[in-house]
Design a protein that fits this description.
CATH superfamily: NAD(P)-binding Rossmann-like Domain
Number of strands: 7
Shape: globular
CATH topology: Rossmann fold
CATH architecture: 3-Layer(aba) Sandwich
Helix content: 40-55%
Largest sheet: 7 strands, parallel
Bound molecules: NADP nicotinamide-adenine-dinucleotide phosphate
Order of helices and strands: EHEHEHEHEHEHEHHH
Number of domains: 1
Strand order of the largest sheet: 3-2-1-4-5-6-7
Number of helices: 9
Length: 249
């Protein structure tokens, strides 16, 4: 991906990683359209020079409507970042402890990106250079016991990204998987996690990697390699213990 001159839609950019990347991408000469459910935040971001579109990625109709609006207003749109996600705790000892949360997590974290890509794939393929950036997690490789369906949804996003990259290799669409480690945002309990990376440091590193490795399949900051390559190193059990608050590495 060439990091300048794009028109980029980021549903899930009203806060956290999405907003931090939106600001940096805008300052690098991209047109950036942010999306999310919070209308007042979208209004503020519109005042700051972003495009802003209200979207609920857990609602198929909202995705269809927002995609039509974005494509009509920004016919040069050539990059989709499927950022929106939730991370919610579950207790699998009883169905009441997890089922509703699990279904909501799959709808937002897995069906959301799938439906977004469906809504934009023809637009993206119509342009000579286009990019889909999916967002998984280090927890796709090493799970956290508190959030089973979150981990499963991110493992699914990893697998999906790998497969659609292969399928779309004959098209103009590049598929990049952003794999964040724990980053200090409003997501889950990341603001209290001592292992979480400061948001600005993470966002700066992501932009540097996008710039210096334009053909990368995955964007892996240093801090996530502990999880991403744990199994490859033969250290999976240790990594599970560390991530779940057990032994320190
Ligand atoms: N922070 C981490 O440690 C970490 C680690 C690995 C991966 N990630 C992934 O990074 C992505 C961003 O997370 P974050 O840490 O930046 O969290 P965040 O600060 O809570 O931001 C989440 C964003 O997603 C949007 N969102 C959530 N549900 C939505 C829905 N149904 N429809 C539309 N937008 C929705 C929120 O916007 P509204 O509230 O305005 O709708 C917000 O802009 C997620 O996919 C997350 O899984 C985060």
């Amino acid at each position: 991906m060439n990091i300048t001159g794009n028109t980029i839609f980021i549903p899930g950019a009203t806060s956290g990683i999405g907003l931090a990347l939106a600001r940096r991408l805008k300052s690098r000469g991209n047109t950036v359209i942010v999306g999310g459910r919070r209308a007042e935040v979208l209004d503020e971001l519109r005042d700051q020079g972003f495009g802003a579109v209200r979207i609920d990625t857990s609602d198929p109709q909202s995705i269809t409507d927002a995609a039509a609006q974005v494509i009509a207003e920004y016919p040069d749109l050539n990059c989709l970042v499927t950022m929106a996600g939730v991370m919610l705790p579950e207790d699998w000892h009883t169905p009441e402890g997890f089922l509703e949360t699990a279904e909501h997590t799959v709808t937002t974290n897995l069906l959301g990106p799938i439906r977004l890509i469906a809504a934009f794939i023809q637009q993206l393929q119509s342009l000579p250079e286009a990019t889909i950036i999916t967002v998984s997690s280090g927890l796709a490789s090493v799970p956290l016991s508190r959030t089973p369906t979150y981990c499963a949804s991110k493992a699914a996003i990893h697998s999906l990204s790998e497969a659609i990259r292969l399928q779309l290799a004959d098209s103009s669409v590049q598929v990049i998987e952003l794999v964040p480690p724990a980053v200090r945002t409003g997501l889950g309990d990341t603001s209290r996690n001592p292992r979480a990376v400061p948001l600005d440091d993470f966002a700066d590193d992501v932009i540097t990697l996008l710039e210096t490795e334009p053909d990368a399949h995955e964007i892996l900051v240093e801090q996530v390699k502990f999880q991403r390559y744990a199994e490859r190193r033969g250290e999976y059990d240790t990594a599970v213990a560390v991530i779940n608050g057990g032994a320190r590495s």
